[in-house]
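Reviewer 2 asked us to include a model.

Predict the structure of this chain.
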Amino acid sequence: MPTQSCVGIGTTSPTQKLYVAGNICATGSIGGCSDIRYKKDITPITNALSNVMQLRGVNYFLKTKEFPEKQFTNTRQIGIIAQEIEKIYPEVVLTDKDGYKSVDYSR
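Predicted model (structure tokens):
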């Protein structure tokens, strides 16, 4: 995606349509479209429970010194590793132009 079509807040080199370096505070809700009326060709996920049971929840700290331009917080985080979920659900992992991965929680 060309940088000129991206908007950055707190960064001069956004890599997504909207890239915010730092925390986001909203006084309203942020949501993804999930209403059944928007959807078609709905099928159950095969082995959903066993797939989720393969995911490893982790605690971690972000590498703030190695990536100062990202303005990562220096507090302990909780989550999953993109490369690990990609093995089970590749469609929820995004890869940027530099090969760094993120999880699309809206999927």
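The mean pLDDT is 88. The chain is about 10% helix and 15% strand. We have added this to the supplementary material.
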